[in-house]
Amino acid sequence: xxxxxxxxxxxxxxxxxxxxxxxxxxxxxxxxxxxxxxxxxxxxxxxxxxxxxxxxxxxxxxxxxxxxxxxxxxxxxxxxxxxxxxxxxxxxxxxxxxxxxxxxxxxxxxxxxxxxxxxxxxxxxxxxxxxxxxxxxxxxxxxxxxxxxxxxxxxxxxxxxxxxxxxxxxxxxxxxxxxxxxxxxxxxxxxxxxxxxxxxxxxxxxxxxxxxxxxxxxxxxxxxxxxxxxxxxxx
Length: 235
Known about the structure:
The chain is of the alpha/beta class. The chain has 8 helices and 11 strands.
């Protein structure tokens, strides 16, 4: 088996499914089933989830809202998503813990690295909410940071497309897909994988990223089984 401990990065928008905003119960239930299959294989799973389906700090700032205030609202949105995913997982008997970068003791544990790693070792899924706890940092940065902290083998970035292309495949029909690509080539070609801060942190720590289509059933399990799904970014 290729990976023992993974960090799965999900966007908030992914939880919308066919809806215009919020959380699609059908989509989140599908994701929970996919995650359960991986857990049953003995893979340790940590998750970082975005909040774009509810609120984005940048969008708030664009309309005149204080950026720090907006980012704090975005962090709370990620906690809502984390709790929703926890509920979906526990509905199918997957033990799950939510840890947050900002303390909300009534609803989740604070992020404590050793405790998170202990949960993972016990086979529990750990969902990290609240981003990094700091404004001006994206949940991509939170995903890389937490992956490094809990010593994950890889970041699996679930998206709507099945990998990294030479250009946006939704706009350019001639775009071709990379099966694998180096960090250096991503920068050289100006390809969009994660925001620059997150990507640089991943590169410096030699932490591979797999970009794949989370909405194709079975993809997550295939990746942890070592199949060539999506695009691998490595050194």
